[in-house]
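Problem 12. The chain below contains 105 residues. Write out its predicted structure in token notation.
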Amino acid sequence: MFFAANEDGINRWPKLVIILAAIVCAHGLGYYLRYHRDYRRVGSAMVFLACIIYGAGVHLAGQVYNVDVNDPRLMLFWFLGALPLVYIIKFQPIQFLALMLFYVR
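Solution.
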């Protein structure tokens, strides 16, 4: 909603930096909660949220660089970003997300 309301007022690089910072913060918080604080479910949910933010970031970067919204490469990039987490985290919602992204692309 923030980007949609202020799309013309924000330049290209700040948009990309904000979305990259959101991805890094969500992954970092998920890692910290899962492995250092032993909150496995909450940490895994944060990593799942980071996967969704990553997908939004892929589509936002595509929008910034004038890529068509229906371009199947965007879903492929999102799938390739979520695929390693399927094997690392072994959290069923992330596996389901990656499977759906594979079929949608």
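Discussion. The chain has a mean pLDDT of 87. Students who got a different answer should revisit the alignment rule from Section 12.3.
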